[in-house]
Design a protein that fits this description.
Helices cover 50% and strands 12% of the residues. With 347 residues, the chain is an alpha+beta fold. The longest helix has 30 residues.
Length: 347
Amino acid sequence: MTLEIEQTLKQQVERAAGRSLASPKVVKLKGDASNRSYYRVADGSLSWVTMVMPPDAKKASEEATKGEPPKELPFVNVHRYLSALKVRVPHILRYDEPAGIMVLEDLSDVTFEEALRATGKQEALYKEAVELLAYLRAGAEKYPDPACLAFTRSFDEDLYDWELHHFREWGLEAWSGKKPTADERAMLDKNFRNIAKQLAAAPKGFTHRDYQSRNIMVKAGELVVIDFQDALQGPRQYDLVALLRDSYVELDRRFVDAMLDHYIVSFERETGEKIDAKGFKAFFDLLTVQRKLKDAGRFEFIHRIKGNPGFLASIPASLRYVKAAFDKQPELWPLRKLVAGYVPELA
């Protein structure tokens, strides 16, 4: 870290806090798969987090999306909407758009994942996360806002299909070092498109897109949602797959079913709507196949293209989830047999 960066971040925090910093310490925080960088600026007992963005920060999501790049920074846009719903998100203290620097409240380093390890209160924490998700989804369905970017983009058939082929390219082909035959490729194309059609036909609403244990912080016993800038329209089960089929925290199926039941009860309490649990869970399993295949391929892509091997350790869990979901989808067994010829873990 250069002295120039430290000085720039110090000045940004001083403007946000409205006070001078006596002896600030600037520490770069561990990054994730995004192109943003984070730094903690501490001065005595006070601290702030700064987000440093690239010049093209307003561009569309790094994963496949349609349409023109947004006119407003997606983080700011979606933050405004979630705040209006009274969903706890990090406070924005200052945003210097020309500099590409944002000063945020410091949420500490305790993610939902860390809180699970530290407290051992698995059931209580997951119930809280599921209730928060039900509250968010119900509120968003009741109060849609076309000014929020999440209501202008959607998980459509093409996006689901693109993600499945992202796995084909970076998982199936990259791991095996082989390409499917023409007949196999035709079968993959047909099956992937069929899955995409089924998923895209479901009713859609506000979807965080990555509501999992590393994108929920725990501060003073309160859950704080982060990394929501890629929110879009998707089925109710999508964020539940992200949370309960999390590649970083594995959960057994009995517990997953209990949390799905808790979501259904919580959502009914928020909306009065009755949900068929059997059908809801069947769709959850189909969506698990799509999402976790995509995750497995994405983790390899991040390793090979971005030079970040940190997510490779999460590939086995992703594939175990796919395997378990395949077990509940006999109509997908021909696809499973084909894919398992290249990815034995799915056999």
